[in-house]
Specification:
Layout: E1 2-4, H1 10-21, E2 25-30, H2 33-45, E3 49-54, H3 60-74, E4 79-81, H4 87-91
Parallel strand pairs: 1-2, 1-4, 2-3
């Protein structure tokens, strides 16, 4: 049983579909039920097992709820893929050329 955060579109959706093709039961999650239910329908049409659970990764109660709902529905949770990020974080761009070299240091 895999829960993939942010699996209503893009890379997350692709991972959900691939996990299902490999036989995993998939908890599709995201903030948009309509998109999530479409992913679930695609997985089910291909013979897989999936369910949509609402998830906002910026809200701890939402996270706890999605995990609890996944376990309640499928009986367990064995794999977690942290794919989602708050939209503001991924939509922000920085000018990499202008970053001073010390900013790139890992130490």
């Amino acid at each position: 049983v895999v829960l993939i955060s942010g699996s209503t579109r893009g890379i997350g959706r692709s991972m959900a579909e691939h996990f299902a093709l490999e036989g995993a039961k998939v908890a599709v999650t995201g903030r948009t039920a309509d998109r999530g239910n479409k992913v679930v329908a695609r997985i089910r049409e291909a013979g897989g097992e999936a369910e949509f659970f609402s998830l906002d990764v910026t809200n701890e109660d939402s996270i706890r709820g999605a995990v609890a709902s996944t376990v309640e529905r499928f009986g367990k949770l064995t794999t977690l893929v942290n794919n989602a990020a708050p939209t503001e974080a991924v939509a922000t761009t920085i000018e990499l050329i202008a970053m001073p070299r010390p900013s790139w240091s890992l130490g």
